[in-house]
Specification:
Structural class: alpha+beta
Low-confidence stretches: none
CATH superfamily of the largest domain: Pseudouridine synthase I, catalytic domain, N-terminal subdomain
Mean pLDDT: 92
Radius of gyration: 19 Å
CATH class of the largest domain: Alpha Beta
CATH architecture of the largest domain: 2-Layer Sandwich
Order of helices and strands: EHEEHEEEHEEEE
């Protein structure tokens, strides 16, 4: 049975999400937890993140035995994963489902903290002076629509096309008990 694992992680202690030779990536933690419960297939993820980047709704797929109860599987994974990774849901998917190519869209959020640096936020936000929100939103609008992102590709990328459609990009400020954030 092919399953999708939907999970969140704090990437501060990981060297990105994609499996690394040193075993210090999010996928490595998932694969290790799966091996501990007798699943030896490797996960295939919907996207990659860099070192220190977090995810709220990452999706990976893996083949498991048909005998698994999905609630029990989710609980067992969470029991064997580090505290910085949490499985939110596990669901059965079609055998031809691909976590990357079957996706219809992706969403990203960036948090800027505009205030005095706070140690409890150090792994989660970028600290900066509050930007001019009007100028920032004008700049973000330039990315919307269909654009060629060749300049953002790694050299040697095997992507079929550098053209992507960005549906929405906006920044907003939000005051909280911790201080003021800018959310992009």
């Amino acid at each position: 049975m092919k399953i999708a694992i939907i999970y969140a992680y704090n990437g501060a202690k990981f060297q990105g999400s994609q499996t690394q030779p040193n075993g210090k990536a999010v996928e490595d933690a998932l694969n290790l937890a799966l091996r501990k419960i007798g699943v030896f297939s490797q996960v295939n993820s919907s996207s990659r993140t860099d070192t220190g980047v977090h995810a709220l709704m990452q999706l990976s797929c893996v083949d498991v035995g048909d005998f698994w109860d999905l609630t029990k599987l989710k609980n067992e994974l969470n029991r064997h994963l580090p505290a910085s990774v949490f499985v939110k849901n596990v669901k059965k998917v079609n055998a031809d489902f691909h976590p990357r190519y079957s996706a219809k869209a992706r969403a990203y959020r960036y948090l800027l903290f505009c205030g005095i640096q706070r140690i409890e936020l150090a792994d989660l936000v970028c600290f900066c002076a509050k930007p001019d929100m009007k100028v920032l939103n004008e700049a973000l609008r330039l990315f919307c629509g269909e654009r060629d992102f060749s300049g953002f590709y790694k050299s040697g990328s095997n992507e079929k096309s550098p053209v992507r459609r960005l549906f929405y990009a906006r920044a907003r400020a939000r005051k909280t008990a911790l201080g003021e954030f800018v959310i992009i």
